[in-house]
């Protein structure tokens, strides 16, 4: 690796509110009718990337995959301080599950000569957490998930992280390049600086790469994704009494029945 | 059509595998739950249930025999210092090799931090289909169907994996019940070749500190709080104390840092099935309901009369939990004095 670290931070545009509908024809999420925002856990990823850059010297490149409108989340990252942004956008990516998605991101991270890739814990729309390990696996790189904090050592070819494991923590050193998934809420994301924000929203133009640019056009999209949506059902509610009482004592009596 | 255009002959793959997560000889409880579920799937498919255990000196732990008692027909043991403690890269490489050699149809993995770290890694080299946080797994329509709640609605998505193998699912702790072990069950324990060398690994665990993890999945009484708690869980702890129960929280409450992640109830947390579930200041999003709707009796306390939790509760009260809970504590404290247990 070079003396300066190439830090790539993965960001995803997700629907904002809980009122996302499901396309009855395809069973897939209809993302078009909800406001689109940066995935909340990704703010922690951007913050971690910027802190890492301050500690080791290097550049931070924001990387996203999505429709052309997803460039908005690159602007958020650049506004917070990322140096540059790349959008992977191509109709060929449409319908990709986590396998091809992590492949495209892995190829892009390799293209960017990444030393460290940082992502959020998971996305709020799909909640799988599978993409960061997927990126690492596609490239044969080390991975560190559920990270509470990074302990950068400039000049070393490895990165130490404190990871949250159930009931405790572990500190793990990983050789570079490494993919980091930051735990949600583990740091305090900085607000965008005013001048940086103006730059991000006006002058900054992200690069756009297609599937062909990454040489993955035959390995992405709905048809080659291992998992498919086989159907959508309404969740049957469990039958309940649904009795609303006026006084706490009445509630207590019902609780006492169970005890 | 077997294999579709994926180049994979799905007919070559059979058996149901369960990844038995263990740390220092302690098995994660979710592994037993998955062996119970996997047993049903294997029976229905008329295939073997295979437990995969990785670690060091496993013959001293009794884990392989316990896997047989809990339903496995065969236990694959990968025993080497390189597998203790867990690291994604040696575990991933070993799993890739075993899948290539033995071609399982289905692999079940616990949705713990370790399990999700592992699953995401191993699905890639095998070009497997991986579905996170499944709440239902079944053989239906001549195929393996994985169901998980879909974002933002009262919908369950059925995920299938027609042309790739193995079909992998992660499942959060508590979703499936654990069957009683049967020490008379017989099966084989197979020591598999270890294909990973320490000097090929990319990671080193410098330090590992793990204490007791709260386990809410077996509780008979659960007092759970959400955003309405506004930061102070103390009244809920007191109520749980007088009722003889434990405390849990919604995802929001966990993300606010008001309660530890091990106590999160919901699709991305634990599933509980207590006799009594008191939801205080919890709106009742589908993701939360998934984790508690097997509860016997559900009590709701919420200031919003339109909160969906009231449709999913047996008894509810529209009110501020900061007033209602102290009244309940008082009621049951007096009750205790009057009626000795």
Offer a concise description of the structure.
The complex is a heterodimer of chains A (259) and B (341). Chain A contains 6 helices and 15 strands.
Could you walk me through the main structural features you see in this protein, from its secondary elements to its overall organization?
The complex is a heterodimer of chains A (259) and B (341). With 259 residues, chain A is α/β, with parallel strands linked by helices. Chain A has one domain: HUPs (Rossmann fold), CATH 3.40.50. Helices cover 27% and strands 30% of the residues of chain A. Chain A has helices spanning 40-56, 71-80, 98-111, 131-139, 194-201, 248-258; strands at 5-10, 13-15, 21-22, 29-30, 36-38, 58-65, 84-88, 116-120, 142-151, 158-165, 168-175, 178-182, 207-209, 228-234, 243-245. Chain A has a nine-stranded mixed sheet, sandwiched between helices. A two-stranded antiparallel ribbon of chain A has the order 2-5. A two-stranded antiparallel sheet of chain A has the order 3-4. In chain A, helix 3 (98-111) crosses helix 4 (131-139). Chain A starts with a strand and ends with a helix. Chain B folds into two domains: 10-200, Rossmann fold (3-Layer(aba) Sandwich), CATH 3.40.50.620; 221-336, Rossmann fold (3-Layer(aba) Sandwich), CATH 3.40.50.1220. In chain B, the strands form four sheets. Chain B has a seven-stranded parallel sheet with strand order 7-11-6-1-4-5-12, sandwiched between helices. A five-stranded parallel sheet of chain B has the order 15-14-16-17-18. The model of chain B has no long low-confidence stretch (mean pLDDT 93). Chains A and B meet through strand 3, helix 3, helix 4, strand 9 and strand 10 of A and helix 3, helix 4, strand 7, strand 9 and strand 10 of B. Strand 15 (243-245) of chain A pairs parallel with strand 18 of chain B, so a sheet runs across the interface.
């Amino acid at each position: 690796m070079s003396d300066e670290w190439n830090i790539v931070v993965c960001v995803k545009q997700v629907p904002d509110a809980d009122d996302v509908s499901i396309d009855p024809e395809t069973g897939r999420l209809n993302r078009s009718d909800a406001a689109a925002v940066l995935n909340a856990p990704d703010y922690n990823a951007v913050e971690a990337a910027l802190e890492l850059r301050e500690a080791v010297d290097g550049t931070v490149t924001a990387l996203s995959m999505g429709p052309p409108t997803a460039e908005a989340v690159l602007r958020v990252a650049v506004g917070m301080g990322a140096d540059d942004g790349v959008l992977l956008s191509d109709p060929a990516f449409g319908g990709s599950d986590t396998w091809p998605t992590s492949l495209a991101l892995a190829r892009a991270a390799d293209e960017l000569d990444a030393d460290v890739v940082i992502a959020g814990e998971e996305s709020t729309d799909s909640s799988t957490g599978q993409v960061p390990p997927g990126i690492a696996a596609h490239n044969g790189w080390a991975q560190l998930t559920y990270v509470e904090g990074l302990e950068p050592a400039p000049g070393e070819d490895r990165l130490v992280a404190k990871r949250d494991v159930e009931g405790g923590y572990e500190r793990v050193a990983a050789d570079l390049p490494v993919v980091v998934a930051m735990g949600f809420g583990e740091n305090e994301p900085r607000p965008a600086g005013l001048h940086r924000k103006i730059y991000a929203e006006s002058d900054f133009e992200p690069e756009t790469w297609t599937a062909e640019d990454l040489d993955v056009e035959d390995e992405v999209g709905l048809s080659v994704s291992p998992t498919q949506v086989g159907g959508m059902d309404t969740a049957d509610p469990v039958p309940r009494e649904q009795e609303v009482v006026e006084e706490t004592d009445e509630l207590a009596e019902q609780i006492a029945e169970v005890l | 059509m077997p294999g579709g255009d994926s180049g994979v002959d799905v007919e070559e793959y059979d058996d149901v595998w369960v990844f038995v997560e263990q740390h220092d000889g302690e098995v994660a409880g979710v592994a037993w739950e998955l062996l119970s579920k996997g047993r049903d799937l294997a029976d229905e498919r008329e295939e073997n249930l295979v437990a995969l255990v990785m670690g060091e000196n496993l013959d001293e732990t009794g884990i392989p025999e316990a896997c047989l008692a809990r339903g496995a027909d065969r236990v694959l043991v990968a025993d080497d210092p390189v597998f203790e403690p867990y690291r994604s890269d040696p575990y991933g490489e070993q799993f890739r090799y075993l899948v290539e050699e033995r071609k399982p149809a289905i692999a079940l993995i616990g949705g713990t931090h370790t399990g999700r770290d592992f699953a995401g890694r191993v699905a890639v080299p095998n070009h497997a289909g991986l579905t996170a946080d499944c709440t239902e797994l079944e053989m239906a329509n001549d195929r393996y169907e994985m169901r998980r709640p879909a974002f933002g609605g009262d919908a369950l998505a059925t995920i299938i994996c027609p042309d790739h193998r193995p079909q992998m699912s992660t499942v959060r702790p508590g979703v499936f019940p654990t069957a009683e072990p049967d020490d008379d069950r017989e099966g084989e324990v197979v020591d598999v070749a270890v294909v990973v060398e320490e000097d090929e690994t990319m990671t080193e665990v410098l330090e590992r500190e793990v204490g007791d993890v709260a386990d809410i999945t077996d509780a008979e009484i659960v007092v759970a709080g959400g955003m309405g708690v506004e930061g102070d869980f103390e009244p809920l702890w007191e109520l749980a104390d007088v009722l003889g129960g434990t405390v849990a929280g919604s995802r929001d409450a966990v993300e606010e840092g008001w309660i530890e992640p091990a106590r999160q109830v919901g699709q991305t947390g634990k599933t509980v099935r207590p006799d009594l579930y008191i939801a205080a200041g919890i709106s009742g999003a589908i993701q939360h309901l998934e984790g508690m709707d097997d509860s016997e009796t559900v009590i709701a306390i919420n200031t919003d009369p339109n909160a969906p939790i009231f449709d999913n509760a047996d008894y509810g009260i529209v009110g501020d939990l900061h007033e209602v809970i102290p009244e309940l504590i008082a009621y049951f404290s007096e009750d205790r004095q009057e009626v000795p247990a």
